[in-house]
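Run log // design_07
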């Protein structure tokens, strides 16, 4: 424990004036303000993105043959477990026309650790992760 008063942590009035003067002097207005419109290149890149216009529900309903990602990942909201599978392996095991939502549920259910004996409560609760 020290005998110093708490005032040693605060800058002196002279130091505060100096800091305020430096802060006001170094601020330069940016080229684009917060209300300025974004450049057209920005919007073009957003719209060209493969995820644009696809909701999470639509992504879950895709067939495995339509998914371009290399690794598919689903996690359980109940037991916090994550399962990953390569798209090629998923196509080999479940077929190219299998829906990703059904495949993910099967992957989680095959190794589910939450068994209650009631059909409504058994199994995992999938949470689909986006890349």
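design_07 sequence
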């Amino acid at each position: 424990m020290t005998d110093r008063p708490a005032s040693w942590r605060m800058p002196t009035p002279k130091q505060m004036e100096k800091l305020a003067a430096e802060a006001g002097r170094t601020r330069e207005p940016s080229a684009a303000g917060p209300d300025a419109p974004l450049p057209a290149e920005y919007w073009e890149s957003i719209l060209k993105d493969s995820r644009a216009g696809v909701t999470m529900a639509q992504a879950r309903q895709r067939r495995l043959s339509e998914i371009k990602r290399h690794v598919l990942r689903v996690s359980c909201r109940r037991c916090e477990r994550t399962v990953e599978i390569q798209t090629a392996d998923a196509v080999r095991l479940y077929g190219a026309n299998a829906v990703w939502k059904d495949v993910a549920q099967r992957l989680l259910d095959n190794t589910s650790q939450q068994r209650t004996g009631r059909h409504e409560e058994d199994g995992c609760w999938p949470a689909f992760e986006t890349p």
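The two ends are 52 Å apart (CA to CA).
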